[in-house]
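Q:
Just now I want nothing more than another pair of eyes on a protein record. Here is the record:
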Amino acid sequence: MASSLPKQPLLLFISLFLVLLLSPLVLGSSRGGGRPASLAYHRGPLLTGNVKLGLVWYGPFGRVQKNVIRSFIKSLNYRDQHGAYMEPQVSAWWRVIESYRPRRRGVVAPINVKVVRQITDKNYSVGKVLIMDFIPGLVQKATGGDKNTIAVIFGARGVTVQGLCMGKCSQHGILGRQPYILVGDPETECPGTCAWPFYPSDYGPKGVTLQPPSGNVGADAMVVSLASALAGIVTNPYNSGFYRGSLTEQIEAGTACPNMFGSGAFPGYTGKVRVDPANGGAFNARGIHGKKFLLPAVWNPRTSSCWTPL
């Protein structure tokens, strides 16, 4: 029987060299290092103008976690005027999402995000496993019945959220015409899936584990997940905006460039980031009060490529 391996040592060496050389490129095409296909616009409405958020803190959350997440939300529209020291800013990341809207006289109109309501449910009113049957009640709590408010439900450490950790670290959906977002703390549920690069990955090259910018793995992992979900809900709120793929497996602005945090990223490597000398935390954007965040790459509709702050 003929062998499929090269018979000459030189040919074998060349073949192995080419496999090793090309394998990062092949892996990168599916895990963020390549150049994904563009997102298609399906002619549906996008979120514009003022976006109101109603938050539910489901389960016990510490002050650090709440402050990190709220600071990130406040930073979306915050533009510091102190020059290059504060660059890049979270608001620059958000402007890429704003650019999905049609320009008016060459100017992109801002999308202003504001928290208008917060509810704390520290005693797990419907248990520690959040199945989709429980979501309508929590959405009602978050919005107070206001259909123009987006419900954002955060599950605390140890809370299992249906649909998360199974290929998704956050998700957004609609109940009727009411948009909502689900974000879980992955620190105990699925750190190897949804806390990378602050925790060793369960898949592919392990790479280097980075320190979270706030010092809290759960908080900074949730910021990454929330950022992806916000990018998706603004550009595809009713499953008829910008995405590619099928209705049930949509790839959106916040998920088109997985595991990328800086230029030069490839599987197991975040790409270019900065390190805070004070605590060793990795970051790629600054926000309000000089807070530091590590934000995921997003799909830039103007350049049809993945965009990162650095």
